[in-house]
# Entry
Amino acid sequence: MTEILNEKLNEIILLDKSDYFHLLAESTSDIAFILNDQGNFVYGNKVFLNQLHYKQEELQGKHFFEFIEENSKPKVSNSFQKIISTKTAVKFETEIVPKVGIEQLYEITLTPIFNNDQLNALVGVGPNLGKVKSEKNKIEELLSKLTEANRLNAIERDRAQQKISVLNELNNLKNEFISNVSHELRTPLASIIGFAETIAEDKNLTVEKAAEFNSVILDESKRLARLINDVLDFSELESEKQKLNKNSLNIIDIINESNNAIKKECDNKKITFTAKIPQSEIMIFADEERIKKVISYILTNAVKFTQPNGRITVIAQEFLKEVEIVISDTGVGIPEQNIPLLFDKFSKVKRLGQNLTGAGFGLVTVKQIIDLHKGLIRVKSEVNKGTSFIIRLPKYSFN
# Structure
């Protein structure tokens, strides 16, 4: 800007073409002014007039030092002397006092104009450092906010990616779940259809063979019914449409009933069954059918995964505010890394050497029931050593 002004000023002063200078001076956002050889103002641009609250006629004839803050005058005086001695432009910072308000700091570049080695005029331009600093602070603040916004956006992108990963995983689990359910429905249904068609089409089928096939059809029908009931039960609990039918009941009666129902299976498999149950009542406030389902399911699993000549033990203990039920077996056990998956929706834990039936949501339903009763269920297991399920339920309060 200074070079352009310097280049054009000769035309202004010598050729009296001031319109060129005015065009340049009024197009800058800095203050611009002209001093005569005595240091008096000849011209100030609109930025100068607006920032220092002067009119053009008020500016005319005033000396530059009249506008300089007292402490800045020695430095400005040295700059003027340097201009005269070196005949070159100088740059300095100074506080200029406006007509109204407090002084403002400027960085002035003052360029001398000589004619035949005689100082003819001085051209000054410079930014308002206070405004520059303010703009710089605003830019830094905006950059800081932009950095923070970018960081938050990155965090949100990571969260979104994690959610997408979870949704994809959940979608895969649901697909596997649907596949498992379809397989479990198809298997007994195929047996039922196959044996029923044989009975209907084989005219030479003996009574004994027909009875055997009917028995298979009945067993597979019951298996299919259990699976459908499990799916419906799971769906109702998941959607919270099913209301619990809670009443005060003796948990010892439910445990004994479940134990008696499983003893025959234990005998058939030569599994030693032991129960350590208190004789006295332990009252809880619960849905009887749901609690029966929980205990029966865990006992059935214990029989399924325990080898012949193994052991199953059921223990019930009464505490101050809770009853604890422990169902232990000496079965195949569960790998430690798979234990957290036992209660995951749609996860089906595979056990080494076991060809298992079921859709993989039995224990999820068990946990849902326990949670709805404000209870707790935990699992401890070791591979080839056995598994223990620990259930805690709140006792019934008579208050």
Remarks:
- Confidence is low (pLDDT under 50) at residues 11-17, 355-359.
